[in-house]
Amino acid sequence: MLSEADIKQISARGISEEKVQKQLRQIEQGFPFLKLEAAASVERGIRVLDGEERERLIDDWNEYKAHGHKVVKFVPASGAASRMFKNLFAFLEADYDEPTTDFEHTFFDNIRRFAFREVLCDQCKVKWGKNLRSMLDEHRYKDIVAALLGVDGLNYGQFPKGLLLFHSYADGQRTPMEEHLVEAALYAASNGQAHVHFTVSHEHLELFRQKVEQKLSHYEQMFDTQIEVTFSEQKPSTDTIAANNDNTPFRNADGSLLFRPGGHGALIENLNDIDADIIFIKNIDNVVPDRIKGDTALYKNVLAGVLVNLQKRAFGYLETLDTGVYNHEKLEEIIRFLQRDLCCRRSDIKELEDAELVSYLRRKLNRPMRVCGVVKNVGEPGGGPFLAYNADGTVSLQILESSQIDTSNPEYVKMFKNGTHFNPVDLVCATKDYRGHAFDLMRYVDPATGFISKKSKNGRELKALELPGLWNGAMSDWNTVFVEVPLDTFNPVKTVNDLLRPQHQPSPEEGTHHHCAHG
């Protein structure tokens, strides 16, 4: 099935032939669904903290940072913004020239409220010799969109989401990338230093670097914090082979094999390369202006406090088990911690012999740990918090996507539909063991949690293999804890019109003046 040329192409990507054969088998066989026990809830698996607890946890986090631990903020930022502008691309293709759909009306009626209006106005002057207002008066709607999205315009259609102008301030506009630098200074800095790592796609790397060069010193001065920014790219060796509907390898017009990025699950390798004690993970588009960053920073501090607290206790228990000096009560205490605080249970734990029990407790405590903020479910698409069965028969907390759930099982569908909470990708991770050595994160991925999606290339249908998602199957074997965070810490931008939501707009007193305001 694979020719000499194929094998050459495969090894040039840093992938083994065996891995490709395995991927083709996975595409053919599909992936097993997960066995669920329940959707996580406040009654079971989701912690809700009162004001006093929050204060104490923030103190714990501040104390932890004061001891010189390295903290990194990890931001997956390789997404292009094309999906944000899907409706505007459709408008360009449409056989009408005036705004017709609700989306188009909303966009053009509010065009002056976007943070990019000024650069768009300038672009219209360059491209068409007229300002934005004149263009609107002349009903040149498609020309305006072309100036925004086109390669010979602002090229926003091909730009990375992280470099679009999202928010307006009295002193200018900010991109999501800049908002993440500000966030890092607010909650991830220790000893006057903050570290931010962006995963970007190869074609956008230079653009990101330039933007950092232009803006970094501004934010360092603003927060009196030294900010170190690093980048990595999704590795070509994590790409997966595409297949036809009959499960044979999909080939490009020139006969070569088609490989596709394996989804955000590929980033577990990038995460594995980060040397840090604590790592915050948050998506590039979930940012807000400074005026409402308060809750975001507060709850990041709280989540980190929960994490370092649990980690300290787990480390203490591991050290106790190492000494061999403990009694039955102590083992009971450790079991309670594992079951109650880390939400990891096994039904036959009472039947284990002491030696077997100690080895089980050690194995479960000595692994990467993450605390995930979850928000009340308001019908946003995406994954949710569940109690699921693991390969070893234990039940623990997992973040699941709908694709991992057997929709022919009415009970599971009901769990998914009636789930009270949603995962906004708000994670704080501890990736070193109690002796200070980094865990090999690749060992904690559940390879059986990938999924197959339907895509197309040049009008031809194909099956794409998605790796176990970064916060789903790639962290399947981590200790996971869920904490409820307020909904206002979750403000993703999926379409350009989401930027018109009040959370992304300046407050009236921040009213900004622009030289193109009348344009």
Radius of gyration from the CA trace?
25 Å
- Proportion of residues in extended strands: 15-25%
**Main sheet makeup:** 9 strands, mixed
Helical fraction equals 25-40%
What are the low-pLDDT stretches, counting only 5+ consecutive residues below 50? none
Overall morphology: globular
The SS-based structural class is alpha/beta
- Terminal residue distance: 60 Å
Tally of alpha and pi helices: 15
Annotation, overall tally of beta strands: 18
Write down the overall mean pLDDT. 93
Oligomeric status of the shown chains? single chain
Describe this structure in words.
The chain is of the alpha/beta class and 519 residues long. Helix content is 35%, strand content 17%. It contains 15 helices and 18 strands. The protein has helices spanning 4-12, 17-29, 51-66, 86-93, 102-109, 117-128, 132-137, 141-149, 176-187, 205-223, 268-272, 293-323, 328-341, 354-365, 410-418, and strands spanning 36-39, 46-47, 71-76, 167-169, 172-174, 193-200, 226-233, 240-241, 259-260, 278-282, 369-376, 384-389, 395-400, 421-422, 426-430, 451-457, 460-466, 479-484. The strands form five sheets. Strands 2, 3, 6, 7, 10, 11, 14, 15 and 18 form a nine-stranded mixed sheet that branches. Helix 4 packs across helix 8, helix 6 packs across helix 8 (141-149) and helix 9 crosses helix 10. It starts with a helix and ends in a 35-residue tail after the last strand. 41% of the residues are buried. The model has no long low-confidence stretch (mean pLDDT 93).
